[in-house]
Design brief:
By secondary structure, this protein is an all-alpha fold. It is 64% helix and 2% strand. Strands 1-2 form a two-stranded antiparallel ribbon.
Length: 236
């Protein structure tokens, strides 16, 4: 069966990374409903990330996507519905990045000494996510709409799903029970997310590989593992 299509009012684009220009299509070109939805999500994501939820209207989104408002409302009944869909998509992208990172490690038995590799893979997953998502990662990490119960629930769900997956892996590595693994995963998520957000904001001279090494050492060995050999602590 042929997928239903929307008649575009202008250019369209399939799912693309933030900041990548949408290729223009000739007027009158049909788009599938799936492609149209992806286009609208891409446009809304970029606008929400750059302008903030409260400064973007459905008119702005329709204009940027070059569609009529009826087409936009056909896919998303309200701006909040559209924002929630964007948050869900960002959460799915982050979880996919983590899955890709841990898959090679889980392919075989986790052996002693692989623990730091797991930590590094997870930190790398967060950095890879912000490298692709850019400013739109803030819609998941630093949403300006979390006062809304629905948005807060979606953001918390996305974080919980990622944390749960990481806890499963850490439980294998550490041999800890579920409760301990959950705490360790939450701490690692906070550390990895903080490092990724810092990198996005400041773009330090250190390349991402160096950032992964530093954060992985901190998370795996603790601060004590980073103290200089000649450091002397004097209790006042």
């Amino acid at each position: 069966m042929t997928e239903p299509r929307d008649l575009p009012d202008g250019a369209g684009a399939a799912h693309r990374p933030p900041g990548v220009p949408r290729p223009r299509a000739a007027r009158g070109t049909r788009m599938s409903r799936t492609d149209r939805r992806r286009q609208l999500l891409d446009v809304a994501r970029d606008l929400f990330a750059s302008e903030g939820f409260h400064h973007v209207s459905m008119d702005d989104i329709a204009d940027r996507a070059e569609v009529s408002k009826p087409v936009l409302y056909r896919h998303f009944p309200s701006k909040l519905d559209l924002y929630l869909a964007v948050v869900d998509a960002q959460g799915a992208d982050l979880l996919a990045a983590v899955e890709r990172a841990v898959a090679p490690i889980e392919a075989g038995p986790v052996v002693r000494g692989a623990g730091r590799d797991v930590v590094a893979a997870i930190v790398q997953a967060y950095l890879a996510f912000v490298q692709v998502a850019g400013e739109s990662s803030t819609l998941l990490f630093e949403s300006d709409v979390t006062h809304d119960a629905q948005v807060r629930t979606r953001v918390q769900h996305a974080t919980a799903e990622t944390t749960r997956r990481i806890a499963e892996v850490l439980a294998q590595v550490t041999g800890r029970g579920p409760a301990d693994a959950d705490v360790l995963a939450a701490a690692l998520v906070a550390t990895a997310q903080g490092a990724a957000t810092y990198w996005l904001r400041h773009r330090p001279e250190s390349d991402t590989g160096r950032v992964v090494d530093l954060v992985s050492d901190l998370a795996w060995r603790g601060v004590a593992g980073l103290v200089r050999p000649d450091f002397v602590y004097e209790d006042a």
